Amino acid sequence: MEEEKSVSLTNAPTLGHSVIPIVNKLQDIFGQLGSQSTIELPQVAVVGSQSSGKSSVLEALVGRDFLPRGSDICTRRPLVLQLLQTKKGQEGGDQEFGEFLHLPNKRFYDFNEIRREIQAETDREAGGNKGVSDKQIRLKISSPNVLDITLVDLPGITKVPVGDQPTDIEARIRTMIMSYIKLPSCLILAVTPANADLANSDALQIAGMADPDGYRTIGIITKLDIMDRGTDARNFLLGKVIPLRLGYVGVVNRSQADINTNRSIKDALIAEEKFFQSHPVYNDLADRCGVPQLAKKLNQILVQHIKTVLPGLKSRISAALVSVAKEHASFGEITESKAGQGALLLNILSKYSEAFTSMIEGKNEEMSTSELSGGARIHYIFQNIFVKSLEEVDPCEDLTDDDIRTAIQNATGPKSALFVPEVPFEVLIRRQISRLMDPSLQCARFIYDELIKMSHRCMVNELQRFPVLRKCMDDVINNFLREGLEPSETMIGHVIEMEMDYINTSHPNFIGGSKAVETALQQVNSFKAAAPGPRKDSADSDKASASDRSLKSRALLARQVNGNVPDQNVRLAAEGERGMPTGTNNDTSKKSVSNGGSSWGISSIFGGSDSRMAIKENSTSKPFNEQPFSENLQSLERASSMIHLREPPSVLRPSETHSDQENIEIAVTKLLLRSYYDIVRKNVEDSVPKAIMHFLVNHTKRELHNVFIKKLYRENMIEEMLQEPDEVALKRKRTKEMLRVLQQAFRTLDELPLEAESIERGYSVSTDQTGLPKIRGLPSSSMYTSSGSSEYSYSPSPKNHRSRKSSHSGELQSPSFPNGDSKASGRTAGMYPTIDV
Ligand SMILES: Nc1nc2c(ncn2[C@@H]2O[C@H](COP(=O)(O)OP(=O)(O)OP(=O)(O)O)[C@@H](O)[C@H]2O)c(=O)[nH]1
């Protein structure tokens, strides 16, 4: 045992030993990146009939004696052997030991003890009498000289039940084996003893079921030393009997006698080498004979696997590299010198102003496609909010007919005016224009808010590291925008006041009095035409005749005064319900109305009945109204000869009844209001955005940079403003380190010795002074070239490469196993692609 320990794994051509440096490097890379994920190597399972030499092959590959072997001892439970690399120099890192899952915290340093525990644990579960169980035994072997890989030793296929074995033992074992080898990531070592009928190999049969295309099956022929005299496995090794994409390797393990005499693995390897040398039939098949060749083949498959997954790892790292580099750049470099800091501040101020301007103009790079931003929002506020709201306003909305009538009566003062003055129209239009003030000012406020929001969105990342500067800049821009808001509000005030100050009735778009009267008459006419016929009661008919008279006279006068009589037959459609007066006196004859004429401005001479005579007294003071007129008269008569006047009510309102003239006057007033209001509205819709753009938005664009420099570019303030919080310095340091690690990782991945030549050169393992192997590279799959039709031949020199066409040898990840030609190429001679890298 002592002697065996000194023959460490390092001296044997163990499985994956040449892949170790690469995998270690990858692990280092991912370790540094703080990621647990690393390359997952394929699992290797040995399958075959009972006593075919499976355990012996595994042991030889691991280079350790620890598995129960022997003619009467067999594998009866799956043994999952997890090799774990320990780091030399770490505590306990250079020791080799085993641990069982079922015996936690117990380390086995004696490998004979491990073997005994495997046997004991097998008996515990499967009984002592040949019973088989599918419950795994999990063994972890830690060693500085192994690759992190999992090997599975499976029970051998048996046909005749013995001992406690059930009658369907073969089916059970096959199912158990399949559950492991069907996994696309499982590499199958199909072990067939040379002293049995090779063509009927159970191992190849079951492997063929799990891996029909043969991308992950290696054929292993054991017991070449005990073949019938005169027979050999040459044709089999050459793949002439059952072709196999990854080919065959012939091995000579220790015999039972060797085991009994404790022959070491090292000695067994030497004996194996001698065997092949002394058998001329295998002389030219050196590349497919011996455990070292098997290890080499496996290494090469592992390398191929790593190569397959490497691009994915690289792209992950490069993506991380890009994002970390971006983050690092956002923290900028530390600037110590005064001049440097000054330049940095200037640069930030300029960039900010540019970014702000670009945002308004819609030219910033990070423009959103999911919502409106920057200048587009300003436009939206102007057009879709401000203009739209003004357009929806009806200037007569809050003016009742009574309001208008009262205004008209008030405007004529104490006398019956000769003309209906312009005063009521002006009073009312001013009142409506003044209503435009609030939305206009609100619009300016909205734009101001937008600009503030934009300023917060400018250079968010870049200014993260300078919170003091950010605060100062925010203060400056807030003040500046507030200062810009004032003149725009003043301007808006002026615009509205100008409109109120001079009512330009000569505006070309203004309807004018004559046209308004004409239209009003048409409206009243069509309204009457639609109204029910005259009422029968005498009072109403009296009124009707009175108003008829008055209209007639007005029409006459109008004709005389203006010389402009409207066509009596004109019956134009009403301009709309909005303009219709709501008077109660609807029974005026059509004729009288049509004769009303264009009498605007001379209503005072339209007739004797002054509509203002019909006073409706306030209900709070109605002494006269409470009793009929006759009674009032009687009481007056009863009184002395003195004539008493009733007290005027404190609040006087026009009477409820409207004369025709009033109706027309109301309609005319409304027409004039609407017409003029439209003019003003257009002006305001145009001028307010202009004022806001000029005094606030564009002023900010023009002046912001200057203001920044004036307020913030002060020598004594620069250092303070460019102060970074500790957290930023820490983040910068961390991202810088991460960037370095990622760059290193990227380079390391690029420089991994995965090229054919370096791998081939490096395969020869020599030990240095410390006894550790000097591994210069890995064996390459390119060393295997297709020779002739159905076989692989080993060409030791790269010069012998006949083809460099890529293949999928050793690609154990499921997507890497193409199955396009599976049926044809699976195990058919002459269809194998060249294995190359
Ligand atoms: N002469 C000779 N004997 C071998 C060779 N390989 C294996 N043996 C012997 O064959 C017997 C069975 O070997 P194992 O390695 O236990 O075979 P196994 O396939 O693991 O057996 P089970 O687990 O029972 O299926 C042992 O006595 C080995 O010493 C070989 O190449 N040559």
TrEMBL record:
Keywords: GTP-binding, Motor protein, Nucleotide-binding
Protein name stated in the entry: Membrane traffic protein
Family of this protein: Belongs to the TRAFAC class dynamin-like GTPase superfamily. Dynamin/Fzo/YdjA family.
Keyword Transferase: no
PANTHER family for the chain: DYNAMIN, DYNAMIN RELATED PROTEIN 1, ISOFORM A
Segments for region (Disordered): 527-550, 563-596, 768-837
UniProt-recorded Gene Ontology molecular function terms: GTP binding; GTPase activity; microtubule binding
Compositional bias (Low complexity): 779-798
Polar residues bias: start-end ranges: 809-819
Signal peptide stretch: none
SMART domains (alphabetical): DYNc, GED
GO CC aspect terms: cytoplasm; membrane; microtubule
Residue ranges occupied by any GED domain in the UniProt entry: 666-757
Entries under InterPro entries matching the protein: Dynamin (IPR022812), Dynamin_GTPase (IPR001401), Dynamin_GTPase_CS (IPR019762), Dynamin_N (IPR045063), Dynamin_stalk (IPR000375), G_DYNAMIN_dom (IPR030381), GED (IPR003130), GED_dom (IPR020850)
Ranges of Basic and acidic residues composition bias in the record: 534-550
Coiled coil stretches, renumbered: none
Domain Dynamin-type G span(s) in chain numbering: 38-311
